[in-house]
Amino acid sequence: MWSLCRNFIRPALSTGGLPSLRRSVVAPPVSRSYGTSFNVPPSAEFVSRVSGIPTMNKLPHQESAEGLDAAFIGVPIDTGTSNRPGARLNTPVLRSGSAELLLYHSRGVGHAAQLQQWNRAAPYDSLMVADIGDVNVNLYDLKDTHGPVGLVHVDAHADTSDVVLGERIGHGTPFRRCVEEGLLDCSRVVQIGLRGSGYSADSYAWSRFPCSAGGGVLVQVSGSPDGGGQGSDGGGPVYLSFDIDALDPGFAPGTGTPEIAGLTPIQGVEIIRGCRGLNLVGCDLVEVSPPYDTTGNTALTGANLLFEMLCVLPNVKYL
Ligand SMILES: [Mn+2]
Q1: What is the pLDDT of residues 147-165, one digit of tens each?
Q2: Which of 21, 132, 140, 218 could bridge across to 207 with cysteines, CB 3.0–4.6 Å?
């Protein structure tokens, strides 16, 4: 699991010191040429992509969220996996897979006006971002920080089972628990990409029942929505969760519970870009499993999706 969170109330890791790390680590001289006071990835014009400490997007590493607008956090855990384990190994490969990522979305060369419209994100002109390492569990408490949040959930699976392998905490149960614990504003929840076989003819029936938190419903959308338009839901806090198995295993085979006939990478990208304008308070990318990612393409794709998430956070400029 990977989390990209902003506006921390409390740091995921606290050292109580080392303030010099905040701006100085992996700050090559070339970064100053960008004319920004924000953390930036070093330019491949002068620094090899394979060199240096393999942090997320080659950003500086620091040991707390102090001074940051957003942070990348690795959460190496796959406890509760129902099929093929291995996602706990993904934090280093996603960091390595992000080495190709640069500063900007440059203007595209395609003819699609929508793509050109959204291809000039400048996250490093806008936000102070760093990689703050790995944690055993995500300590980012959405309920304490933001109250019930809306949810954009991109996944082949609804993850609303009551139990998995007899346990209430598993990788197929998180959003059922979220509803039970009042973490979601169920009037602002959408699930995209659901497919595959189930234990009944209507496996997702529970998700359509009125939810305890908001009296609304979980809405499911099979396949991909149209890529057009910016997101808008009235401005409430929204969390984005993207399971890599939403994509077709032909593109992203490195995952534990693959389902055929999934989204293409550009569809996944367009869904994330469509979240621009939402009040995103946190994002995650989950289920990249290196043992089944023989080419590294799944990690590369996952790293790019995390960059796309960074680009649609509130207050990111588009040039
Ligand atoms: Mn899934």
Answers
A1: 899 999 999 999 999 998 8
A2: 218
SS3 content of the chain, % helix, strand, coil (to 5): 25, 20, 55
Q: What is the 192 CA–ligand 1 centroid distance (Å)?
A: 11
CA of 248 to the centre of ligand 1 (A): 11
The whole-model pTM stands at 0.83
pLDDT tens column, 256-297: 999 999 999 999 998 999 999 999 999 999 999 999 999 999
Q: Is 117 exposed, middle or buried (0-12, 13-18, 19+ CB in 10 A)?
A: middle
In the chain the domains, ranked by start, together with CATH numbers, are: 2-312+314-318 (3.40.800.10)
Q: Are 289 and 256 in contact (CB under 8 A)?
A: yes
Ligand 1: centre distance to CA 247 (Å) = 10
CB of 11 within 8 A of CB of 47?
no
- Please answer whether residues 88 and 76 qualify as being in contact, where contact means their C-beta atoms are separated by less than 8 angstroms: yes
Distance 2 CA to ligand 1 centre (A): 14
Rounded distance from Cα 208 to ligand 1 centre (Å): 19
Q: Is the pLDDT of residue 8 over 50?
A: no
Q: Nearest to residue 127, comparing CAs of 316, 280, 273, 272?
A: 316
The structure tokens listed for 252 are 């992203």
